[in-house]
Structures are given as C-alpha cells and as structure tokens.
C-alpha cells in the first residue's frame, strides 16, 4: 500500500461517518501522489498524517431564545485545521445541514485554497446547524451573540480570523463583531467581511464571484478564447452567484439561469440581475418570485434541472455535491466547455472525472473561489495597516491574485505531467507551500 493510500485508509477508519471529509481528503491526497513520491522526507516526517488531523477542534453549545420566549440549543463548531503558513482563516456557515464532517471538509479545503492565494493565511472553518431562514433580525442577533460568547476565547486577529460563508453575511458579521468587541474591548480585524463603517474592505462582497470570473476568463484566454458571447448557467443566488453573474455579464457573457435551494429560473433573454438582487439581497425572498416579475422567464421546482439547460460555461455557486454524475453527462452532451466551481466542492468526484475525461476545462473550487478569502486577507492587511484602499485598488489586486493562481496551478499540473488537469495542479500548488512550512517547523 502506498503512503497516500495508508493515510487515507487510516483517516476513514478513525473518522467514520464523515463522508464529505473523506471525499475532500481523497481528492486532495490522491492527486498529491507524485509530489509525495518526489519527496520521501514527507513520509518520514509523518507529514500527511499531521495534515489530515486538525490542530484543534472546538465544539460548543449555542443556546438562544426566540421571539416567543422559547429556548433553542444549536451546535457550534470551529475547526482550526492548519496554521503552518498563517493564522487560521475561513468562514462560518450557518445552515441546518452543518455537522462535523461538513466543517472538516471545508476546513481541509481551506488550507490549500488559502495557500494558493499566495497570502499568509492558514486554514480553518466553523459554523452551526442553526437555520437563519425565517428568523427575525432580533433572533439572528441573539444567536450571533450567543455563538460569539463562546467563540471569542478561541479567535484573534493573529490567531484565527473567521468570516462569512453560507448563511453568514454582512448582518451576521456585524452582530458577531459587536459581541466580540464588547467582550474583549478590542476593535481589531478579528473577522473579515466587516461593514465599511467598521473596518471592512471595499470589493470584499463582490470578491468571490468576481474572482471566479477572472480565473474563468484567464483559463479561456489561455485557449485563445473569452467569455464574450458565451451562454452561462450559474447555480445559486447568494453572494457568490450574484457577483459572478455581474462580472460575467460585464465581460459579455449571457447568464440564462440561477437557482436557490427550492428551484431554478430560466430566462432565455439573459437574467436581470437587478431583479435577483432586489429579491435576494433586499427582500431575502425566494428565486421563484423572479418568474412573477420578469416576463418570458420560467421557474422550475428542484435545483438539479438547472444543469439540463444548454450552456458553454457552467459555474456551480450553490453548495457541496450539487453537480452529480448524471448532470455532468448532460452538461457534456450539451457542449459545455468550462466548469468553474464558485462553491466549495459542488462537483462530486465522479462528475469531476466525467467532465475531465470529456475534455471540459475544470477549475476546482480551491482555486476558482479563492478570491473571497484572498480579499479577506487584503482586509486583514488594511486593518493592520489602519488603511483603507479604493475599490479599484482592491479589485486590481484580486484580479492579479486570480491570474497568478491560474498560472501556478497550470504550471504545477505541467510540472508533474498532468497538463490541463487543474485539480492536480491546484492540490499540488496549494500543498507545496504548506508542506515546506510544516517541514521547517519540525514535528508539531
Ligand atoms: N467562506 C469563504 C470561503 O469558503 C470565505 C472565507 C474567508 O473570507 O475567510 O473561502
């Protein structure tokens, strides 16, 4: 059995019932095989065994009281996965599906993603199985305050810097920051995605979606192509999907479909993003309402159908494992040329293989959606320097980071004989820096 296989076997034995974590670790470790073979010192140093074990896992109770006076208890998580290259960095997810497996897969992915940004940030992730849907602002505030009343003792601007993810946006970050500041009496960059009035960065909101489109454009450019005139399907309608849609349209693409967890809209004339923003950002409503407001558009129940719409470019920006084998086959049949992951691990392992075997350009999330966390690191830099950069400045840095990520993953794939395989390229390029730092630190 190879070193990689034995580490994976042990991981599955020691962490049963964590399918998403197994999936993320399997994808990464399998593609590291050649880099591991080239460096026998890694095995001697137990590098992979240490890499797949979080440095610290924090599980806590989050009690809160709803508007009717009923007491609720949710689970709180923070997995501080790896701090070899910088303080733990990664979002908080509030969604009923959250469990330890999901937080560990996200934290593990975050290590390599953050390394790929080229900035000094380690990997971590957290969240709760709390469902923000249908809750009042006061309920959200009380939940966030309770969550932070435990989390504050584990985080810090140079230790661990959480941010948003699914279910955690500007409103939640505001409440979390308010409680942290109240308890610690410190106005520091302990969270990113903050409001502009209290230390946030311009372009952070747009960064994940814009970054996804910048790297997509770069990948197309390397093939003498561009987004201009392309038909795009973008799943999701949260922060990532909305700003991916905005930038894709700006670059001349036509986005014809978006979705939420209930169903998808198809608008052959091109999505009207102002309507989506009004429904999702202002009213916190459902995407279904789009079809009532825009003539000629259709709404379909269920999300999976979105992948049956013919497109040149597909950008899954909703959630993990939303694009399966069956959908991948339909996309290929319909002539898709590029799939870029805006969400974390939205494509199953089987679907990824189908797309790659069919010659579809596949940009994995840890490279393609790294623009969000990269801009969080730019927010941290501004906080430490007590500076405030213009939108253009941050956006230009983001663009450069995404272009460099593409160049690095392309080069790493070529170096190990996997030209065009950006899954291998991203995993190796992300791994190399973390491995070097871990080796330098000794067995810790
Ligand atoms: N949740 C985002 C991600 O998956 C952003 C994390 C951050 O900004 O720290 O990378």
TrEMBL record:
UniProt similarity note: Belongs to the Glu/Leu/Phe/Val dehydrogenases family.
Residue ranges constituting the Glutamate/phenylalanine/leucine/valine/L-tryptophan dehydrogenase C-terminal domain according to the UniProt record: 201-442
NCBIfam families cross-referenced by the UniProt entry: PRK09414.1 (NF006929)
Name listed for the protein in its UniProt record: Glutamate dehydrogenase
Pfam family, one: ELFV_dehydrog
UniProt keyword annotation of Nucleotide-binding present: yes
Keyword entries, A-Z: NAD, Nucleotide-binding, Oxidoreductase
Residues forming the catalytic site: 125
Single GO BP term: glutamate biosynthetic process
Gene3D superfamilies (alphabetical): Glutamate Dehydrogenase, chain A, domain 3, Leucine Dehydrogenase, chain A, domain 1, NAD(P)-binding Rossmann-like Domain
Matches recorded under PROSITE patterns: GLFV_DEHYDROGENASE
UniProt cross-references to InterPro entries, sorted A to Z: Aminoacid_DH-like_N_sf, Glu/Leu/Phe/Val/Trp_DH, Glu/Leu/Phe/Val/Trp_DH_C, Glu/Leu/Phe/Val/Trp_DH_dimer, Glu/Leu/Phe/Val_DH_AS, Glu_DH, Glu_Leu_Phe_Val_DH, NAD(P)-bd_dom_sf
SMART domains linked: ELFV_dehydrog
GO cellular component: cytosol
Keyword DNA repair: no
A GO MF label: glutamate dehydrogenase (NADP+) activity
Site (Important for catalysis): 165
Description of how the protein assembles with itself and partners: Homohexamer.
Entry binding sites for NAD(+): 208, 239
